[in-house]
Write a structure and sequence with these properties.
With 62 residues, the protein is mainly α. It has one helix at residues 25-60. The longest helix has 36 residues, at 25-60.
Length: 62
């Protein structure tokens, strides 16, 4: 069995566009935190992909 300590840990799945009426202030605050972490993760992947594309372009455009 393999345990991955780097895997994203979400306590509550977030559904974009979900009705927020029944959420408590604490749940909404947690939701903001989770979404912020996801934004950072996606932005990091964009940077990674741009770097990889730049490297590939430099190899093929000699």
């Amino acid at each position: 069995m393999h345990f991955d300590d780097d895997s994203p840990k979400t306590t509550t799945p977030v559904t974009i566009g979900e009705d927020l009426y029944d959420f408590s202030i604490e749940e909404l605050t947690e939701r903001i935190s989770l979404l912020g972490q996801e934004i950072l993760r996606v932005e990091a992947e964009i940077v990674n992909k741009k770097s990889t594309k730049t490297d590939a372009d430099s190899v093929f455009n000699l």
